[in-house]
C-alpha cells in the first residue's frame, strides 16, 4: 500500500517496493527457517544464504590453523578488523575509515562510549526512558561509581514532532550537562528521533552526543557524517542481515581522543586513533570476515530500496488495522523518514492475550510489550523483515481482525 509521499519516490527506485517478483527472489535467498510467521524482526534478521555459506566455509579455518605462517586471515587484525572492512563500512554509512572501529555488537560500542567519556561527580548525563535497559544500566553504574547525575527526559510515547523532542532535551540541559544519549529509532514504536538537530544543540553547548543506532543501520537511509553526532554504535545482525557478533562504533575524528577505550591499547595506539577501540583480544574471525558478503547483499538490493520495501510492508498491515475502532496506532505513518515497524494499543483488550491468541491459533508471532522504564506504557509491536512475504502480512491482518472481533 502506497501513501502519496511514497508513490513518486517509488518511481525513482531500481526495484519498486511492490515488485513481488524481485522481493520474492530476495526472500528465497534468505530462506527463513522459522516454523511460525515471525513478525518481530527487531531482534535479528535472517542472514542471506551467501553470508551463511561464507561463515560456514570459514569456521573450520578459524578453528584449525595453528602456525602464524599458515594464518588464513592474515589480512585481519587479532580483533578481526581490517582497513578494507572499515573502508567498506564507511562507504556504506558515511564518515571515514579512520572514524569507524569494528565491534562484536552494538552493546560493545555503547559500553565503550558510555564508560569512556570522562565524567566527574556532579556532571549530568541526559538520556531518555526509551534507551535500552542495558544502556541505562551502564549509566546507573556510573551514578554509583562516579557520582554523576542521570536525567531522563520525558518524551511522547509514540507519535511526536521533532520540535517536541528537541525542546525536551533543550529544557533539560544545564551548565553541568556533559553528555546526551538517545536511540536513533525507538525500538518498540519505530519513532525516529531527530539526530541532526539534537547533535547541533549539544555541540553548541559543548556537550558530547551519542546515538544508539542498533535499529537504524540498514533500516533507514542516513549518512553518519550528515547526522552530526559525536558517536554512533550499531550491530550488523539486525537490518544489515549479517552474522551475530558483528557491529561497529563510529566516533567523529575530532572526538576520538575524548573517549577512553574499554581496554588499554597494548600496541600504544595514540589517543586520537580509532584503532584503539579495536584492541579487545582474540575474536572468532569467521564472523567479521563475512562482513563484506553482508555488505554486498545490501548493496545489490540498495538501501533506499530496502527502506521503501520495509515501509511498504508496514503500511500493508498498519493502514487496515488503524481503521479498527479498538486500535490506536502509536506510530505516525506519515513521518519522514519512516521505519518498517510500528506499534499500537488496544482498547478493552489485554495485549498479552491478543498476542497469545495470534501465536496459539494462527502461528503468528507479534510482541506484547511494556516499556522497561515505565510499564504503564504498553502495546503490540510488529516488525516485518525482508524475509517476510505479503501473504504472511495479509494473514496477520485477517487473524488480528478475528481476534479483535471477539474481544481478545
Automatic annotation (TrEMBL):
Gene3D superfamilies per record: Aspartate Aminotransferase, domain 1, Type I PLP-dependent aspartate aminotransferase-like (Major domain)
Pfam families the record matches: Aminotran_5
MF GO annotations: transaminase activity
UniProt entry keywords in alphabetical sequence: Aminotransferase, Pyridoxal phosphate, Transferase
Domain Aminotransferase class V: 85-366
Superkingdom of origin: Bacteria
Name listed for the protein in its UniProt record: Aminotransferase class V-fold PLP-dependent enzyme
Species this protein is from: Aminobacter carboxidus
Amino acid at each position: 500500500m502506497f501513501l502519496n509521499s511514497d508513490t513518486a519516490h517509488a518511481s525513482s527506485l531500481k526495484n519498486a517496493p511492490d515488485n513481488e517478483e524481485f522481493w520474492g527472489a530476495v526472500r528465497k535467498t534468505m530462506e527463513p527457517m522459522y516454523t511460525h510467521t515471525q513478525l518481530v524482526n527487531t531482534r535479528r534478521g535472517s542472514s542471506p544464504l551467501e553470508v551463511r555459506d561464507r561463515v560456514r566455509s570459514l569456521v573450520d579455518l578459524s578453528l584449525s590453523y595453528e602456525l602464524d605462517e599458515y594464518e588464513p586471515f592474515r589480512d585481519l587484525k587479532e580483533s578481526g578488523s581490517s582497513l578494507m572492512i572499515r573502508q567498506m563500512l564507511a562507504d556504506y554509512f558515511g564518515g571515514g575509515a579512520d572514524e569507524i572501529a569494528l565491534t562484536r555488537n552494538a552493546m560493545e560500542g555503547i559500553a565503550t562510549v558510555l564508560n569512556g567519556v570522562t565524567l566527574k561527580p556532579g556532571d549530568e548525563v541526559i538520556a531518555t526512558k526509551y534507551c535500552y535497559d542495558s544502556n541505562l544500566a551502564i549509566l546507573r553504574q556510573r551514578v554509583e561509581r562516579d557520582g554523576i547525575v542521570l536525567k531522563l527526559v520525558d518524551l511522547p510515547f509514540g507519535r511526536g514532532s521533532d520540535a517536541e523532542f528537541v525542546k525536551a532535551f533543550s529544557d533539560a540541559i544545564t551548565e553541568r550537562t556533559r553528555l546526551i544519549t538517545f536511540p536513533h529509532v525507538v525500538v518498540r514504536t519505530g519513532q525516529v528521533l531527530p539526530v541532526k538537530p539534537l547533535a547541533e544543540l549539544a555541540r553548541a553547548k559543548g556537550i558530547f552526543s551519542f546515538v544508539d543506532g542498533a535499529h537504524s543501520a540498514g533500516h533507514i537511509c542516513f549518512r553518519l557524517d550528515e547526522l552530526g553526532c559525536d558517536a554512533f554504535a550499531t550491530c550488523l545482525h539486525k537490518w544489515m542481515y549479517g552474522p551475530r557478533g558483528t557491529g561497529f562504533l563510529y566516533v567523529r575524528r575530532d572526538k576520538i581522543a575524548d573517549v577512553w577505550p574499554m581496554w588499554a591499547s597494548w600496541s600504544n595506539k595514540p589517543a586520537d586513533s580509532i584503532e584503539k577501540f579495536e584492541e579487545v583480544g582474540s575474536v572468532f574471525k569467521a564472523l567479521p570476515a563475512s562482513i563484506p558478503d553482508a555488505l554486498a547483499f545490501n548493496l545489490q538490493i540498495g538501501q533506499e530500496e530496502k527502506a521503501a520495501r520495509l515501509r511498504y510492508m508496514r503500511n500493508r498491515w498498519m493502514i487496515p488495522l488503524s481503521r479498527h475502532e479498538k486500535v490506536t496506532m502509536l506510530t505516525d505513518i506519515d513521518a519522514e523518514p519512516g521505519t518498517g515497524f510500528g506499534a499500537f494499543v488496544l482498547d478493552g483488550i489485554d495485549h498479552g492475550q491478543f498476542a497469545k491468541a495470534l501465536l496459539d491459533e494462527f502461528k503468528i508471532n507479534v510482541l506484547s510489550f511494556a516499556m522497561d522504564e515505565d510499564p504503564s506504557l504498553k502495546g503490540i509491536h510488529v516488525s516485518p523483515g525482508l524475509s517476510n512475504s505479503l501473504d504472511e502480512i495479509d494473514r496477520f491482518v485477517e487473524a488480528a481482525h478475528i481476534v479483535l472481533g471477539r474481544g481478545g
